[in-house]
């Protein structure tokens, strides 16, 4: 089922996908899922560099910093660790995104685009599938390599 079909079927929480994701059903790339489950970081990185699709969660943020409300806007989600490092969240599938937050809206993007967005926002990394089952962090030189030249 494509994003368009899912929306027509009543899942109005999906954001319209860009044209290159028109046939995307929200499932994880099986090769990426297998590489992450097998703890094969090299293969996972190769697939990400090749442009695997990730889902970036977008949530409503109130103008005052809370969630929802009459004066809100949509924003990508970052987690901040106690030491101040910040990671932009991304997910390999709708299933893993919903395990983290069932009301977040997925926006599909190629992994290099997600890495560039993280760097542009001043994040220290990208946290993939933060709710599991397999968590994966992309940071430092790997994040910069994935993002490509400035």
Describe the overall structure.
This protein has a 4-stranded mixed beta sheet. A 3-stranded antiparallel beta sheet has the order 2-1-5. A hairpin with a 7-residue loop joins strand 6 and strand 7 (136-139). The longest helix is centred in the last third of the chain and has 10 residues, at 111-120. It has one domain. It has helices at 3-8, 30-37, 41-49, 94-100, 111-120, 140-147, and strands at 53-62, 72-76, 78-80, 86-90, 105-110, 125-128, 136-139. By secondary structure, it is an alpha+beta fold.
Low-confidence stretches: 1-15
Q: Please count the beta strands (DSSP E, at least 2 residues each).
A: 7
Q: Strand order, biggest sheet?
A: 3-4-6-7
Number of domains: 1
Count of helical stretches: 6
Helix and strand sequence:
HHHEEEEHEHEEH
Helical content stands at 25-40%
């Amino acid at each position: 089922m494509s994003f368009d079909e899912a929306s027509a079927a009543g899942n109005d929480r999906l954001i319209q996908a860009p044209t290159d994701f028109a046939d995307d059903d929200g499932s994880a790339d099986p090769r990426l899922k297998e590489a992450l489950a097998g703890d094969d970081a090299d293969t996972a990185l190769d697939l990400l560099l090749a442009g695997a699709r990730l889902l970036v969660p977008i949530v409503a943020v109130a103008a005052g910093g809370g969630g929802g409300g009459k004066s809100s806007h949509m924003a990508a989600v970052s987690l901040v660790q106690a030491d101040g490092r910040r990671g932009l969240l991304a997910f390999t599938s709708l299933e893993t995104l919903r395990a983290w937050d069932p009301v977040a809206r997925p926006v599909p993007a190629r992994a290099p685009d997600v890495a560039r967005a993280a760097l542009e926002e001043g994040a220290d990394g990208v946290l993939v599938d933060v709710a599991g089952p397999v968590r994966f962090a992309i940071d430092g030189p790997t994040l910069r390599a994935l993002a490509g030249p400035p």
